[in-house]
Amino acid sequence: MRSSTSTRSWATALVAAAAVAATTTVGVTPHASYSSSIGVLGCKVNTNRIAYWPMDVDCNNICVSLSYGGRQVYLLRIDQSGGAHDVSYDAWNYLITGKSATADPTAGGSIDMETENVDASKCAGLISTSGSKLPLSAANSMNFLNSCLVQQAAGNESWVAANYVLYNILDPICTYGYNEVCTLTDWPDQNQATCPHQLGDPVALTSQPVYNIEYPTGEKVLAGAPASAATTTTPNTANAAANHACRSMFQCQSLLFWVLSMGAIMHSFLGSL
Ligand SMILES: *[C@@H]1O[C@H](CO)[C@@H](O)[C@H](O)[C@H]1NC(C)=O
Q: Are 213 and 49 a contacting pair, CB within 8 Å?
């Protein structure tokens, strides 16, 4: 009896250790402005459920689970932070209070929470494209997508390579381009997608708004619109809602995208001469 009991508790302890090994505890801070270093289009994902982790975004670990106080959310890990574990303000607020940041906005700093990488399918509900494919910018996500396609071509697992869709939208907050799907037909010979309109044409796009939830007011604001008085005040917590100025190429948007696009247009124009 004694020995079978101790065998069982030993087995239980092993199972518990395995479960613990998969999760890690991280200090989580709120993030107010949507961004994506790999060019995921905010108009086609739930920008209230994004993880901004310190490590590089990769082609497989796109979805993480985050738990605190008996509550749990899935988050798309599609941007890199400057060192903190940031999450969308709404997700942070929900985990702490059980309520959306728009309903009951809370302020504060880093809170220890449990996280683990989970299968990308768990984040399907956060993506609004057909088949929940990851929506990428045809003009500006090619470096990342190419790295994932190379992985797949080498016979390695690459969730992104098998589950992406390109749009002729230039920036993650969806303010330039056309809301149309593009295809990459001749990769790797050609690294440029084909779109119904010219690839990277920087026309104003107003039909695909992206909203942020302002910290700490909980107010819903159009991304890319001039900052209100609340966001121009520096929050008192280290990473809270910081507008990490130009942390990635996609955060120096508008002007940079326009410059890149004009460069691409001039390039193809000169190439056609
Ligand atoms: C494929 O996986 C192997 C083994 O992990 C690794 O050494 C190699 O660099 C990978 N190749 C690519 C192109 O990702």
A: no
Q: Is the CB of 36 under 6 A from ligand 1?
A: no
Residue 121 is assigned to a structural domain of this protein: yes
Which CATH number belongs to the domain containing residue 37 in this structure?
Answer: 2.40.40.10
Q: Is the CB of 24 under 6 A from ligand 1?
A: no
pTM (predicted TM-score)? 0.80
DSSP helix/strand/coil, 12: helix
In the numeric block, which tokens belong to residue 14?
A: 């092993």
Query: Quick one: how far is CA 160 from the chain centroid?
Result: 13
Q: What is the pLDDT of residues 164-179, one digit of tens each?
A: 999 999 999 999 999 9
User: Mind listing the pLDDT tens digit for each residue in 219-246?
Assistant: 999 999 765 544 443 333 434 443 343 4
CA angle 241, 102, 109 (to 5 degrees): 35
